[in-house]
From TrEMBL:
Signal sequence interval, chain numbering: none
Residues in HTH araC/xylS-type domain copies: 174-272
Protein name per the record: AraC-type DNA-binding protein
Gene3D superfamilies linked to this entry: Homeodomain-like
InterPro entries: Homeodomain-like_sf, HTH-like, HTH_AraC, HTH_AraC-typ_CS, Tscrpt_reg_AraC-type_HTH
Lineage, opening ranks: Bacteria, Bacillati, Bacillota, Clostridia, Eubacteriales
Keywords per UniProt: DNA-binding, Transcription, Transcription regulation
Molecular function per GO: DNA-binding transcription factor activity; sequence-specific DNA binding
């Protein structure tokens, strides 16, 4: 399921050189239909789409252009009124506007192209996820907040171009990311992850942190929390069950980590999302545990 969250437009008198119109996230699910999101009501002029693919392979339609994308791709393209995508894709995105946005992103795409493979979990992809999560969880946001986040995102994208982060990720790190994303519920910790990969814990932490930008232990916790949110949205499971399903050592520890990450308890989050359909492929997640 995909969710797009619109932000308030900056108040009159506020510089609008860089504006965050909306943010969105899509979780992969079965099927191959093309979904289209009409967004011409959000703004009057053209904007820029920044989209990071976390899993899957498929197509993205931006205006009249069609792009074939896969896991680890970053797409930075002008967007005019329409966004389409194939449903097997999981991505996070933002729609930006303003003169400064136009200048910065034109310069970046002239250097790197509109589509390139990156360290998926670098600061750009992470910032897209955090912006979406902040709005979804009810953070106090307004036009000023949107401008601030849009400018910060532009700076991260510019830094990405300067650092040429499109370099190939080492196989070890790629394998570690894949194991975490597919085996998070069963991994006892980073020691086991290092053993599976045949390297020392110290070497894994050093390599992973250098290329992903966060230690593997923190990344493992983030993946567990992402999936815990999906399970909480169903309203079907106790906290003890959710903690066990995603790999946390007990409900108390799970609640502590969840509140530190999102500023609310798992129970409060479940209550705040009770009126929504669950995001993501919950059926697939439940099948992991034969539920």
């Amino acid at each position: 399921m995909t969710s797009f969250l619109k932000l308030p437009f900056p108040p009159a008198g506020v510089a609008r050189d860089v504006v965050l119109y909306l943010t969105g996230m899509a979780d992969n699910h079965a099927g191959d239909a093309v979904y289209e999101k009409q967004i011409n009501h959000v703004f009057s002029d053209s904007g820029w789409l920044v989209l990071a693919v976390s899993t899957g392979k498929g197509k993205v339609t931006a205006g009249s252009q069609i792009y074939t994308v896969k896991q680890g791709d970053l797409l930075i393209v002008p967007l005019d009124k329409k966004l389409g995508y194939t449903s097997e894709l999981c991505f996070s995105c933002a729609l930006l506007g303003g003169d400064l946005t136009q200048r910065y992103l034109t310069a970046v795409t002239e250097r790197l192209g509109v589509q390139f493979h990156i360290n998926l979990h670098n600061s750009v992809a992470g910032m897209l996820r955090r912006i979406y999560n902040s709005i979804e969880l009810g953070a106090a946001v307004d036009g000023y907040w949107g401008c601030e986040k849009a400018f910060a995102l532009l700076m991260e994208i510019s830094a990405l171009a300067d650092k040429e982060e499109s370099i190939k990720i080492p196989l070890l790190v790629d394998q570690a990311v894949e194991l975490i994303r597919t085996q998070y519920a069963y991994l006892s910790g980073i020691e086991e992850l290092a053993d599976r990969l045949g390297v020392s814990k110290h070497h894994l932490i050093r390599e992973f942190s250098e290329y992903i930008g966060t230690p593997p232990g923190r990344y493992l916790s983030e993946v567990r929390l992402e999936n815990a949110k999906l399970l909480l949205q169903t309203g079907k499971y106790t906290l003890e069950t959710v903690a066990d399903m995603v790999g946390f050592a007990g409900a108390n520890y799970f609640c502590k980590v969840f509140k530190k990450a999102f500023g609310m308890t798992p129970t409060e989050y479940a209550q705040s999302t009770a009126h929504r359909r669950p995001n993501g492929d919950v059926d697939k997640l439940e099948q992991m545990f034969y539920l």
